[in-house]
Design a protein that fits this description.
Elements lengths: L1 E8 L3 H8 L2 H7 L3 E8 L2 E10 L2 E15 L3 E9 L5 E13 L2 E13 L1 H4 L2 H23 L9 H8 L2 H22 L2
Antiparallel strand pairs: 1-7, 2-3, 3-4, 4-5, 5-6, 6-7
Helix pairs in contact: 2-4
């Protein structure tokens, strides 16, 4: 499927370029980012926890920058694998243009998904992609304003990783133990 869009960044092109290639900035802005490591030569390894149409999946991805022309453009190639959750591969041309006192970022590319992701249907996948892209740029602007997104707590990460039936089972066990404890203390 094809993806395209544009976002206005409140920075001159060189500063926008630097921010878009900063591991600190990417770590703060990539939705669901749990880990991000620069591997040199325009390569990054990313681990994300994502939820698409109620399917929570941990993706391990590689991002590669190619045809790099600082601070004007590059091709972003990506491949991500979420195990049984599916996979995604693709590429996008990212172009930065001066725009008044900021930068206009244009992107155009293609994405292919497989596995469970493909079973969700094109509409769900397109909506999820749009949401992820919009969230990235919303976070990007918050970080630029000094409003760093709060890191998720370990408890929240665990809560989101486990399916609802696990938490339901735990809740039933806790209620049962409280019930037994209350009745024993009444004796």
């Amino acid at each position: 499927m094809e993806v395209s869009g544009k976002h206005r960044l409140p920075l001159p092109p060189q500063q926008a370029w630097n921010a878009l290639n900063s591991t600190r900035m990417l770590r703060a802005c990539i939705p669901g980012c749990v880990e991000l490591e620069a591997r040199g030569e325009g390569r990054f390894e990313v681990v994300q926890e994502l939820s698409v149409a109620a399917h929570r999946t941990r993706f391990s991805s590689e991002l590669r920058l190619e045809d790099v022309d600082p601070p004007h453009s590059y091709v972003l190639r990506f491949s991500g694998n979420g195990g049984q959750g599916g996979f995604g591969i693709g590429h996008a041309l990212i172009a930065l243009q001066p725009d008044d006192d900021g930068t206009l970022l244009n992107y155009r590319g293609e994405v292919e998904v497989g596995g469970r992701l493909a079973q969700l249907g094109r509409g769900h996948v397109e909506d999820a992609l749009k949401t992820l892209i919009d969230e990235f740029f919303a976070r990007f602007e918050r970080v630029l304003r000094g409003e760093h997104p709060a890191p998720r707590s370990v408890g929240e990460r665990v809560w989101r990783l486990l399916p609802a039936w696990v938490w339901g089972s735990v809740l039933l066990v806790v209620v049962f133990l409280l019930y037994i404890g209350a009745h024993r203390s009444l004796r």
